[in-house]
Amino acid sequence: MPKVRTNWVKYPDGWELIEPTLRELDAKMREAEIDPHDGKRKCEGLWPIFKIAHQRSRYIFDLHYKRNEISKELYEFCLEQGYADRNLIAKWKKLGYERLCCLRCIQPRDHNFSTTCVCRVPQHLREEKVVECVHCGCRGCASGD
Questions:
Q1: Dihedral pair phi/psi, residue 40, rounded to 5°
Q2: Which one of 52, 76, 119, 145 is CB 3.0 to 4.6 Å from 133, fit for a cystine?
Q3: Res 36: pLDDT
Q4: pLDDT of residue 63
Q5: CA–CA separation, 51 vs 136, rounded Å?
């Protein structure tokens, strides 16, 4: 969870531009955490949280690497303050992981037969066309999709 804004932290230039979006995503995150998960499977209760964390990280990644709208200093500040996932962004920079949904999908220890998640399989190679990841609810994050 990102830290609460105080006077102790010096915010870099450009923070005013991204702050409203990050505050909106924080509000959505709080809503998702409070939302009751009655009638859902145990794993489905965490899916909205994973989705919002992915959105927040992707937003900062796109602003810095794709659109070049924020400075390196502001980007590093966001990573240090916990607004984005540093490890997930590091994977997005690598070939083949550009659309990765979460880090649990590529960890072999969390899956049967020490492989990756079914959402990492390209859609044209799947036996079932509609598949949801058990960990985060992703329907397909393979680079070839």
A1: -105, 160
A2: 119
A3: 85
A4: 96
A5: 7
Burial label for 110, CB within 10 Å (0-12, 13-18, 19+), is middle
Residue 1, pLDDT above cutoff 90: no
Top-confidence residue, 137 or 60: 60
Gap between the Cα atoms of 145 and 124, Å rounded: 8
Other CB atoms within 10 Å distance of the CB of residue 75: 21
First to last CA, the chain: 31
User: Structure tokens of 92?
Assistant: 């997005």
For the chain, what is the mean pLDDT?
A: 87
Q: Do 135 and 50 contact (CB within 8 A), yes or no?
A: yes
Distance CA 57, CA 80 (A): 12
With contact defined as beta carbons under 8 Å apart, do 131 and 139 qualify? yes
Cα four-point dihedral sign 72, 74, 76, 82: negative
Judged by DSSP in three states, 40 sits in coil
The pLDDT of 124-133, averaged and rounded, is 79
